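Sharing a chain and its predicted structure for anyone who wants a worked example. Both blocks are below, sequence first, tokens second.
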Amino acid sequence: MPPGMRMRYDPPHASLSDYLTGYAIYAAESRAPMVNWYLPAPAMISVLVDAGPVSVAIGNHRFGPLDRVSLYGPTSRAFQTVTHGGIAVGIGVSALGWSRLTSRLAGDFRNKIVPLDTVVGGVVARRLTEGLDALSDDAMIKPLLDSIFEPLFLRRHPHEDLIRAFTTLAVTDGVIEMHDVAERLGIETHALRRLATRHFGMLPKMLLRRARFLRSFIKLIQPDGRIDYSAIDSSYFDASHFLRDASTFLGTTPRRFLASETVFLKASLRARAAVIGTPTQALHVAPATPSPVVIRPGRGSPGFQDELPG
């Protein structure tokens, strides 16, 4: 990172790894306005610590100044932030985590940012701000977040096996057709659309396209700044096909996007891959088997009943 900036990634505790995709800490000492671009991603909780005002642009929509604790809904295009120093802590939420965290439809929050307390109540937001304000070391953030989030994922959702299986298929090389995914999951396409919109925030086709694009985009980034189109997914017909997706998900060409303000993004891709295993949250895969979250008698409530797939 340049002088005066720092970044840290931590994985959540193993008991939370199905529900949270990682913890990210971004910090800048300067209070001068700073612009950064980030890639489309699943839902995320953001907490500001001693930070100046933050505003975000997602396409033509502007959000800000943001609350200290905000929920970024699932995004289908890159977004721009304008910050003024301080620390921002990001908590990635998987589709499985969303299913346990709230009964709200993730699709209602697509490409939107709202105060977290409008979704999960004010107690969680207050615990996050008070806890983080009291810390003096980045290494202490992970255990604090683990302790705050552990009680929030006790409510099991009845469709967790389907959500977990679709999470894996959505980021699997070569899986690009919705009918193929529905067949592998053993459900009808209309049920897959309902599952994806409710827990992932967008239609299956968009999720599959987003994952394919990001797999290709990250691979073609070269350390010397070159763009190597030979690295794109084989399911793209040609470079122009890939560039059409770039226009959808980045709003511009890959070359122009990478030439813009992406200091934190480029560092984030390297740091996240080194610590968590995948360079971006949108390509994160939950563990193959459920994590051992203990559902204690008398705590939590039964999983809400939505429409059954199929």
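Comments welcome. The radius of gyration is 19 Å.
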